[in-house]
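Ticket #4471: structure output looks truncated?

Reporter: J.K.
Steps to reproduce: submitted the chain below (164 residues) through the standard prediction queue, then opened the result file.
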Amino acid sequence: MKRAGEVLSALFDEGFMKKARGYSAFFSCWKDLTEKNGIAAAADHSWIKSLDQGLVWVEVDHPGWKQILQTKESKLLSDFRYRFPDMGISGLSIMLYRPGNTDSRPDTEAAEPEKYSRQVAPEPVLAAADDRAQNTGYDSIKDEAFREVLMRLEKSIAAREAEK
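Returned output as attached by the reporter:
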């Protein structure tokens, strides 16, 4: 009988595993980057939503946090590029969290910015709790922040697959 590690090694080559660890580190670094740039409180109100074609998509739960992050955008982008040189990060886009949004990239935000700046979104933690009830596979993960990162990653991947 083969051990679980042997089975996983057979399924995933080392290159794949290295890439997966890189993405895991990428989605987990947000708190460190905000602290480094003097906006530690922003980590509680924003999160990395996805990385798409070199663009880091960050969501915020209030327009005020979007403005604060925009003041540090060039430094955050520089830090992303330094930490993850192999990911080809070319830009940073900060958007307001919208309940029910299934798009990985909102194309309408640029056309109607006033619509989103007036909107008040609920805390994303509440939305994540609702998602947990639907995603029973995450129940065994004790680290809530890691569990939420995995759930957002799953949604991002599902949205990309739906586009194909």
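Triage note (M.O.): checked the attachment and the full token line is present. Residues 4-163 form one domain.
Status: closed, working as intended.
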